Amino acid sequence: TNAKRVTVAVIGCGPGGMFFLHAVATRRRMMEEAGDVKGLERLPDVTVFERSSSPGGVWKTDREFKDYGTGKKKNSGCANMYEALWTNGP
Questions:
Q1: CA distance 52 to 16
Q2: Which of 16, 17, 28, 88 is the most buried (most CB within 10 A)?
Q3: Please, what sign has the CA dihedral across residues 53, 57, 60, 64?
Q4: Taking a C-beta distance cutoff of 8 angstroms, is the pair 16, 59 a contact?
C-alpha cells in the first residue's frame, strides 16, 4: 500500500512507556500469528527516548546505602526502587 506508516515517539521507558511497547509487541505477535498483513502495516513505527542507561523509570534506582558493618557506601544490589515491593497479582 501507499499509506504512510504512523511514527510514534515514546518519551521515557518507565512503566507507561514499557506498557505501550508491550501492547504494540503483543498486537504485532497476534497479527503475525493470524497472518494479518494489512494489520501489521497499520502498526506504528515506535522509537523510545530514555535518558537513563536502562529502562525502569520510577521503578528503578541507583541508590547507595551505608553498610553499617564497614561504614562504606555500597549499592543496594536491588534493581527495584522499593526493595520490599511485592504484589498480589500474577
A1: 15
A2: 17
A3: positive
A4: no
Predicted structure pTM score: 0.62
Q: Answer for the pair 41, 47: CB distance below 8 angstroms, yes or no.
A: no
Q: Where are the alpha helices (DSSP H) in 1-90?
A: 15-34, 37-42
Please, are residues 45 and 85 in contact by the beta-carbon 8 Å criterion?
no
Tell me the one-letter amino acid at 88: N
The answer to whether the CB of 28 falls within 8 A of the CB of 43 is yes
Strands (E), the chain: 7-11, 45-49, 64-66, 73-75
Would you say how long the chain is, in residues? Answer: 90
Neighbours of 13 (CB within 10 A): 20
